[in-house]
Amino acid sequence: MITLLGISLALLLPGFVAAECQEQYRFDGKKLVLSEAEWKARLTPEEYAILREKHTECAFDNEYDTNKEPGIYFCRGCNLALFSSDSKFSSGTGWPSFFQPICPDNVSYETDTSFGIKRVEVLCSRCGGHLGHIFDDGPPPTGKRYCMNSKAMRFVPKTHQPSE
Ligand SMILES: [Zn+2]
């Protein structure tokens, strides 16, 4: 099953590598649905504004833009693994940027036409939280740039993760 999925994705996306998509990080398909009141209790006002109201944090003045430590970025709404430091790159945009998610199914996409600009929004697959946008000017191997909000994610350094 996993092998089949890997092959089909490899055919769809030449050069696609998902080395970090380990079973422990893979989205199991069970969505997290909370009421607005529950989200407000769980998140800080800034996190709520980004994840639930699709705000964008300030460029350069955010937590993970320049973070180069090895580790995993998890969703601040539901703790689903989203990105590995292995796919992070310095985009110069002022926001943490990645060329691929940790597992293909952990993020979802929606067309966003706010501000009169057509963009593709990136959402957490489990809680539907707004993470950022995806653009086609990223580096190899995918050519994609996942432009993320630091406050939508929580970084866990590799050294702090329980060993398998
Ligand atoms: Zn989430």
Give a description of the structure:
This protein has a single domain (24-158), classed as Peptide methionine sulfoxide reductase (Metal Binding Protein, Guanine Nucleotide Exchange Factor, Chain A). Helices cover 15% and strands 24% of the residues. The protein contains three helices and nine strands, in the order H-H-H-E-E-E-E-E-E-E-E-E. The protein has helices at 2-12, 36-42, 45-51; strands at residues 71-75, 81-84, 88-89, 97-98, 107-112, 119-124, 130-135, 145-148, 153-157. The strands form two sheets. A six-stranded antiparallel beta sheet has the order 3-4-8-7-6-5, with no helix packed on it. A three-stranded antiparallel beta sheet has the order 2-1-9, with no helix packed on it. The longest helix is centred in the first third of the chain and has 11 residues, at 2-12. Mean pLDDT is 90; it is low at 1-12. The structure holds zinc ion (ZN). Zinc ion (ZN) is lined by residues 75, 77-78, 80, 124, 126-127, 129.
The structure class reads: alpha+beta
Report the span from N to C terminus: 22 Å
Into which percent range does the helicity of residues fall? 10-25%
Bound molecules: zinc ion
Note the run of SSEs as H and E: HHHEEEEEEEEE
Strand order of the largest sheet: 3-4-8-7-6-5
Gyration radius (Cα, Å) is: 15 Å
Number of helices: 3
Number of E-state strands: 9
Average of per-residue pLDDT values: 90
The parts where pLDDT drops under 50 for at least 5 residues are 1-12
CATH superfamily: Peptide methionine sulfoxide reductase
Tell me about the largest β-sheet: 6 strands, antiparallel
Proper CATH architecture: Beta Complex
> Could you say how many structural domains there are in total?
1
| Percent of residues in beta strands | 15-25%
* CATH level-3 fold name: Metal Binding Protein, Guanine Nucleotide Exchange Factor, Chain A
Shape verdict = globular
CATH C-level class: Mainly Beta
